Amino acid sequence: MANNITKKVSWSGEGTPLLNGAEERRYSGEPSGGSMFHIGRMSTVDLEEESTPEEQDPMRLRPSVIPHNEKLLSLKYESLDYDNLENQLFLEEERRMGHMSFRCLEICRWFICGLIGFLTGLIACLIDILVEKLAGAKYGVIKKYIDKFTEAGGLSISMILWAVLNLAFIMVGAIIVAFIEPVAAGSGIPQIKCYLNGVKIPRVVRLKTLVMKVFGVILSVAGGLAVGKEGPMIHSGAVVAAGVSQGRSTSLKKDLKIFEYFRRDTEKRDFVSAGAAAGVSAAFGAPVGGVLFSLEEGASFWNQMLTWRIFFASMISTFTLNFFMSIYNGKLGELSNPGLINFGRFESESVKYNLYEIPLFIIMGAVGGVLGAVFNTINYWLTIFRIRYVHQRCLQVMEAMLVAAVSATVSFTMIYFSVDCQPLKNDSQEEYPLQLFCADGEYNAMATAFFNTPERSVRSLFHSPPGTYNLLTLGLFTLTYFFLACWTYGLTVSAGVFIPSLLIGAAWGRLFGIMLGFFPTTNNLWADPGKYALMGAAAQLGGIVRMTLSLTVILVEATGNVTYGLPIMLVLMTAKIVGDYFIEGLYDIHIRLQSVPFLHWEAPATSHWLTAREVMSSPVTYFNRVEKVGTIVDILSATSTNHNGFPVVVQAGAIDEPRKLCGLILRSQLIVLLKHKVFVERVRSGLCKRRLQLKDFRDAYPRFPPIQSIHVSQDERECMMDLTEFMNPTPYTVPEETSLPRVFKLFRALGLRHLVVVDDQNRVTGLVTRKDLARYHMGKHGLEELGLTHP
Amino acid sequence: MANNITKKVSWSGEGTPLLNGAEERRYSGEPSGGSMFHIGRMSTVDLEEESTPEEQDPMRLRPSVIPHNEKLLSLKYESLDYDNLENQLFLEEERRMGHMSFRCLEICRWFICGLIGFLTGLIACLIDILVEKLAGAKYGVIKKYIDKFTEAGGLSISMILWAVLNLAFIMVGAIIVAFIEPVAAGSGIPQIKCYLNGVKIPRVVRLKTLVMKVFGVILSVAGGLAVGKEGPMIHSGAVVAAGVSQGRSTSLKKDLKIFEYFRRDTEKRDFVSAGAAAGVSAAFGAPVGGVLFSLEEGASFWNQMLTWRIFFASMISTFTLNFFMSIYNGKLGELSNPGLINFGRFESESVKYNLYEIPLFIIMGAVGGVLGAVFNTINYWLTIFRIRYVHQRCLQVMEAMLVAAVSATVSFTMIYFSVDCQPLKNDSQEEYPLQLFCADGEYNAMATAFFNTPERSVRSLFHSPPGTYNLLTLGLFTLTYFFLACWTYGLTVSAGVFIPSLLIGAAWGRLFGIMLGFFPTTNNLWADPGKYALMGAAAQLGGIVRMTLSLTVILVEATGNVTYGLPIMLVLMTAKIVGDYFIEGLYDIHIRLQSVPFLHWEAPATSHWLTAREVMSSPVTYFNRVEKVGTIVDILSATSTNHNGFPVVVQAGAIDEPRKLCGLILRSQLIVLLKHKVFVERVRSGLCKRRLQLKDFRDAYPRFPPIQSIHVSQDERECMMDLTEFMNPTPYTVPEETSLPRVFKLFRALGLRHLVVVDDQNRVTGLVTRKDLARYHMGKHGLEELGLTHP
């Protein structure tokens, strides 16, 4: 990471020098007989390395607080192929298929979506029940101790017990994540966002990840961290989808030989969208919210049929969860039981709001935006600190344990010093009321907030009657929980940020509501602080994650009441606008810090200066339609370039005529061809008669072996290989003059991985990939260009 | 219409003869000096006309019941340009604009969306209030007469009064639609769907249309037809959006000189989406539903920022409506007043459902699907009848009046013979209880259903306590209203089908609920028929219009309760699946019957047989980069071809070298160029020094004059015109071998209007337009090809 090169160019106004600069990089069109040029992206890097980095990058001269990795894109992330590879084999298969086959496929898709929903619902159910059981056991034991020792003065024993229990849970949770499957850390939402965007995050949708995620999150929540289980549920749904839709598991070494048609990135992505939606649906009981989440965070091309399948998966997921939870709650079949609504139902009578409150809601939204920005900024610095200094797995586990210990200590201290005693009611939301130093028949209100799973605390803040919490309790709780949650997010444990955000917001929202009560009104307008708790929760969550449409629907569905739809929208919209003024959303920050080549919705506004000629990689490594095996092996083995797509060219007539583009072939396809030794000479000599089929490619998907694992003998190196049948004969192309926004739109709308740039003779002059587009982004001073780094 | 040619080819299996047939159509690449080929699509038609139509079309031999226009696509519909025309002028403008200008534009967009929402809300408010006042006055007068004459036996006078009042309303409503603005007929949703799909429906977003639509719908509803005001509200929102975003009105001859940047199809479409969403939002009080409606019915490329703007417009629209309605209802500022929820709020306590009811809901969904299919089939035949025999405006007005008279008579008869007397309660939903022959203190239940605006009837069916209606009343009402609504949809009045569908469904749903009550249960499970009324309404509406996701959200928002979300989804999904088995949705039927070249979401499944070579129009009329004015005028004036896009080619070197594609220019641009006489010679001689700017194109948008209105003298004809600056230098291209699904995907995802097909030398060989793609669709026996017809 130390010798990375950062390049920053000011685009303010003078485009001409840049255009000239780019001209130099252009393909020089050598007419020699050499079959390929083998420089690729390295040319750019070479150019830069000739000059000292200081000359190139004024940013490095001043002692910048921004770390270098933020101005770089990592080359370690590969892209997914969301554009179908329509080669001859594929077209032949499609043409063989009749109307009925397509209908069967469609039914299969619906069936798989149903299965995804069902399994996701089951997993959510498992997480819910295990968290409840584990946390219940823990709180039960501690409560017993506290009740026993409060009078005796031995509270420190309870405190130590609490801390030790939490530490134990978190240690196990952190160890399985750090040592077994690091990609299971965090909420998983940024990873799913990247996946749906088209970036291949290694191991993100594997079965092992799922198992670690599920047990990790159960331990994290039971371990009393300031975390939620919702993000991991979404990730779990996505993994389930990826697994089910492929009909096999590499982890289990099991191939059911079904759903083979769906073994490609395009189809898999569709199912993963459905899985993520099913996850949201199970996490919040919000099927429509789930669909919108998938669309807002992932989709680019909206397809009606796909949306309906996603919707179906979401529906089944909520249904499954509700059904099993109704059994668990002993109310078999009562699907509309209010207990199934996550944050408790807001009854219609108590939820009135008036025009006069709209400005208040907007103010709350703004406060949420600011607090969210503060949260994100602190977490941003923390994450950079972690990237720099907390690499080692042991350190990561220790940090998680430290946070667990601090959480327990702080909570205990807060409860201990709290003087907010409330009379004990029978119908109250608390399951573990702590009496502590309160009089008999009373309980400690601070303990309600801390001594509970975060979900229950949110519920209590929403629905407890006025007067349940006093100002000081809420203020202190907000403050502590804010910093705890902020510190916790990004730890090497499996945990989400939704519920902590809601909890922080609910606390200060309720505080806000109580404070409003000090203003005298005629009609007891501010009677219900629960309403403000909800708005605060929305504002805080919106300020942190910056979703609007999907979050509105999720919150409406999770509270079981649409009356607040309009104010929630207003609050979320305000929080987003205010928050965006300061810093990005939390997920986007984490994506950026990982240097992922993430493509946003649109090209930067001021990027019309740039054309395909400037952004493309050039010259391009290409193959002839019939290419020597040795050449192919050499190119694929070259470690300096790690190209994944190669244009295929053909020489139309005489030897001096230019080579025309005639197709595009992927590294993965070439690997399969080499593995099966589909060489022209050998076919002729009868050594390899079997014709390669689409099935061979599907069997190898998605984990194609590296080129090093394929042995090619010296004899074989002299053979030729005919790529005609396997290449995509109709890759999308653009002329060199195409503006960046136009290239971007084509790339994003179709989910491309490679876009060939051709001149007016249809000769290949460059190749645009995701990284070439993701490099340009809007900085504070206009368009900025990120550097590229090898992992 | 009589001499249209229909071509039907069976694609089952043997693709070879077709491919050969297509080869003949290929561009023969004449190397002569002629600057353009001027045959285009006609070549196909010519080929077909040589053989007798009977040979070509086996369908015409048997007396087919299917009319020919259904197998044809009309050529009268032009397309919209949803792909930005990135010519030099545009790029220069974009490059001149700084970061701040783009930010200002973005703020402008938000402002416009807010304005759209506000105005749409106001219009909805106006419609609501006027309908209520007019219908209230009407029912008041009639009730007075009925009450007065029931004892005296002169009921026929009341009956005549009722019929005459209705006739008067409908006559005016039909006349303004038929004679002033025919495009204002119907619900407007199919037209908006087409618009968002990219088809230019003439006059659909004009101010005049808006005015006629608004007054038309007020009169239709007040006139007692079986119609709703929701569809027209959606259309109104779209018109408002189109008007506001352009900053001018051609009808009013007023140009505010603002928002000039937005004067192109791409931007306008975005605003129209927002307007349609705002319309839904105002019609049902469903802002999220509105956004989903816009996406489900229109969008292809999902853009997050755009979605948020649409969401904002929807939100403002509901807000405005609620605010003004709260003033109208005398409860200023009470925005969560249950009276503002369209179909009345379902209170949480009464809305429980159980697992055992899920199968019942699914059965209801299936019934809804079947009934919807019956409705659509009847309306389909009716529409064909209307297209064939009810052309004349007078006839159309008379049909509308006939329906009005029949509606009144049937309603009256039903009420008259009804023996369903119910005790009068104070808290009942009815505003105009009719006593008729019932005892004192009782009222006629049948009259509640008929003697009310449809909205109020729906509300009553949803919320009246058990026992309000008896079986016979509901059965008869369902039957009559079904046929009335079916007859009414498609009349030349401005009216929607949402509310009548809901009403039919609510009636049979309630009937279903009451019948369930006959089965003995232990726990009074079927106590509330209102729940079944809601499910029936959802099923019926879903069976007719076949929306799922957006309709679920709309119904949830319009009933103010999310508990029913899950069952509503199930019902809608079932209704869609069952209904789709029989016939398309109502809107799609109407779109198809209008022969609109509508592009669906995906290419037909079995269309991999086809490649760009077969679907493209060829040979193509093209221009040289510097072209003679006379040639341009001649081509544009040719009536036989009405091309709108022309590839621009350039001769690289020697005269015998092939012409390479270098751009694409539109008819509209050429017209503006001709109008401003931007000729090379004239510029040189100093006659036309002013350089053409983007503003000139924007001023002419969207009603470019016809070529006939532009006078070009004989001298000018000899001048040359340089197209370099004005053409789009980077049109998207595909090779000839590209499969139809791939072409389709590119076309649909990017909202293209023309797609140039090139050979491997980058020479133009064909042009694919919307009609070429829309021609292929899945018929009952596999892929079918529609013919093209000139209007």
Which regions of chain A contain 5 or more consecutive residues with pLDDT less than 50? 1-68
Helix content of chain A: 40-55%
Q: Report the β-strand fraction of chain A as a percent range.
A: 5-15%
Shape of chain A: elongated
Oligomer: homodimer
Q: Largest interface here, residues on each chain?
A: A-B, 97 and 97 residues
Strand order within the widest sheet of chain A?
Answer: 8-10-11
Write the layout of secondary structure elements.
Two copies of one chain form a homodimer.
Chain A: H1 16-25, H2 42-50, H3 53-56, E1 72-74, E2 78-79, H4 88-96, H5 99-152, H6 155-180, H7 189-197, E3 199-200, H8 207-222, H9 230-246, E4 248-249, E5 254-255, H10 265-284, H11 287-297, H12 304-328, H13 357-389, H14 393-417, E6 421-423, E7 442-444, H15 445-450, H16 454-463, H17 471-488, H18 498-516, H19 529-545, H20 549-559, H21 565-582, H22 586-593, H23 612-615, E8 623-624, E9 626-628, H24 629-637, E10 645-651, E11 659-666, H25 667-675, H26 680-684, H27 694-700, H28 714-717, E12 720-722, E13 733-735, H29 740-750, E14 754-758, E15 764-769, H30 770-774, E16 776-779, E17 782-785, E18 787-789
Parallel strand pairs in A: 1-18, 8-10, 13-14
Antiparallel strand pairs in A: 2-3, 4-5, 6-7, 9-12, 10-11, 14-15, 16-17
